[in-house]
Amino acid sequence: MKRIKEKDKNKMVIVMQPENEVGCFQDIDYGKEAQDQYQKAVPAALLSYIKKNESTVMKELKNRWVENGKKVKGNWKEVFGDNPDSKEFFMAWQYASYIQEVVRQGKQEYTIPMYVNAWLVQSKDQLPGDYPCGGPVSKVMDIYKAAAPAIDWCSPDIYLATYKEVCAMYLRHDNPLFIPETIRDAGRSYYAFAELNAICVAPFGIEDGASDMQLISGYKVLKELLPVITQYQGTGKMRGYLKQNGEKGTSFTMGDYIVNINYQGNEDPSYGLVIQTGPDTFILSGMRSGVWFSATDPQRKTGIAHTWEGSYTNGNWKTLRWLNGDEASADGFRMNGRKSYYAKTLTQAGELSPQPIEGMEQNAVTEVKEIIEPGIYQVKLYTIPKK
Is 289 helix (H, G, I), strand (E, B) or coil? Predict the structure, then answer.
């Protein structure tokens, strides 16, 4: 950290991950020193933390403590029982305590945020050791909080299909959602930023998606929306959605309206976000999804005054077209996405690389492709009494 501070004159390093997916592939360390420690008393700091935060600690930790009598002293078996969880709790305390000291000394040299990331439990039937035992999986997050207050947050590396469920586990009052690894899927970013106020979503090996024009276009639109997203994060006026595991749709209430989302297509990605900018005005962005509005008051009927499709440049809105006729019904419309054009060019390395066609030299273009990317829309609603 001292070396980084000396070289980081332009403050380009904004966060540090001091360890990567810590843990061991067995249920506990069977070395003599570790086994001696396992027979000793559970640290008072952990028991005090559990007692103080009993209503909010993760259920796996709380349940083991409760079923063994809520003891305030005793060794790991006495307090949590003779079971795989007890061993994992012990290992998590050891890893967290070590990383606490690494982080404490690192911050003495350069005070920037530091976090730990987890190789997740892959299925419900996995036992500690099938995945790295002692790492910051969700059920031991409270142990990390108690043992390592210098760690700013715990993060999940999410490659599982249960993306939304994992995100929800790691978003807590004391833990922001920061995803350092996930698959290359732009929809995951839209959902996490809009629905859960995430501060980072980092697709692993993003450079390997350099030829994926669907991925590129998704992030291009996300960049357009960034000023608006940051303005509304944490306000309670922004929601995100993401089709997962064959879901058909979702709905949520925003002010005086119910927003109903229907996912379009079978295996195609469907995702987006909705921002309420005023009592009757909304910004929406999405792919392959239909949106219909209804009033929370059952005595009133909802209608759309206008729907504009457009784009943002440095936070400034530009209207591209006004949806009407078959493009928009009285109370909803389909966000099929907007057309964009990408040129494949020959790089110096002799490989084809896609780039937005705007500003390209004509003789450098080898192929032009039409891409459907997430659309951006501004909608104004109204309600009238039902007859």
Answer: strand
